[in-house]
Write a structure and sequence with these properties.
The chain contains 23 helices and two strands. With about 500 residues, it is mainly alpha-helical. The protein has one domain (about 5-465): Growth Hormone, Chain: A, CATH 1.20.1250.
Length: about 500
Amino acid sequence: MVSTYNILIVFTAALGSFTYGFDSAIIGSVFGLPSFFSYFNLTLNEAGSASIIGAANGLFAGGGMIGAAINGWLADRLGRVRAIQIPCMLGVIAAAIMGGSVHVAMFLVGRCLAGIACGMLSIVTPLYQSEVSPARERGRMVGAHGILIVTGYAFAAWTGYGCYFESNPEVQWRLCLSLQAVAPLLLLIATPRIPESPRWLVAQGQRERAFEILNRLHPTTDANIDCATETFTEICAQIAIGSENRQSFLQSLKDSQTLKRFLCAFFVQCIAQSSGILVISNYQVLLWNNLGLYGSLPLLLYSVYTSWAACLNWVASRIVDRIGRVRMMVIGLSGCVLMLSLYTAMVAEYSGSNNKAGNAMGILFLFLHLTFYATFVDVTSYVYCSEIFPTNQRAQGVAASIVGLFMATLIYTEAASTAFAHVGWKYYLVFIIVPAAGVPLIAQLPETKGLSLEGSAALFGVPAGSHSGPEKTQVKLVEDSGSAKHVPDVSRRSQ
């Protein structure tokens, strides 16, 4: 059973997820506001304007890769909470730059800084959530990351729709961009009240503090009386193993099992983005234009689209611990391939025509594509990548997966504006062929449902601490509220 305290800190950390979602999606809303284009003398039909639209998405993704690479190291060096605080401050600064932009270059600089902040948050949020969640509920708890990302998408979409009706054209897009500061500022204010990851604390030798936090996260109940103690025992044993075999990041990649984990995490996020979901999201208004829809209606459809995704992400968080990670990703990617194939056929046949039935079917298939992705892939991919690494490699491992996410995003979104201008609907074939080829590979991944973080890592060749920790390792008495509480030998088998 999950404590209220545990739920509160997981959802507080998920403000970082909301930041990523809002910042990522707000560009789609801004591109739906004619006032933005007129202020910077841009038009959708010119090659120069298309390159700037591509740059806005590409710089965000490129910044995300930089942020991901940086924060994997920072999370290990400074701790998970500090690694949350730094990108929050950067996100507030980026929002101020974009909201106050007087030149397109200033806007692009702010967009790149926002990407760096979001890349950093995309790593540390699921990393932190996985390390403070109980094993049996970890899918649901880390699922908060995916839920709040898409909730951020939805808020960005409704913000754009509301700003469309603002009488002052300049306020329309400036307000959209300035609101990016709200979530990271709230999270920055809240961080002094959330605990450090107990796994990171044990790795730093702060066992007493780690055990106290675990007791708050997993309080003693009749149904789960030894959860904190068992978790602490397992953590200590595996970290002891990791300490005995400590290597640099590059040295660790020489080990075949370690390399396999990193490649799996990288691949999972790459193939998820190869479904075309972010291209569809960021260029959504333009897609509705291709189906003959203009004015405020595309922004309204975009808002409904992202709100539907947020609802489905919540559904995913409720079923991921029942169905299993691998099975869900296989179902989701297969459904995405089918739905996007049908949508592409509708666009190829009816784009620019007055055939209402054909255009309506295109809208339906786009929503069904989202349904498969949000229900089976989005939440699940983050959960899976956060749980297949041992503690001493988890930050770098999650970083590798997020680098894969932003690398795929950079390639696909940077090319999208030019590709749509030159080859039109044929660009969607990439998002049909690539994930279709990836489904058989996803199906071969080990399943981690119901396992502890240490047990999940064991599937990839890492010794499970509770089963294979050094026999001689002992954990000393921990003072808890003035009374001595004994923590058992870390080699003791978990129940």
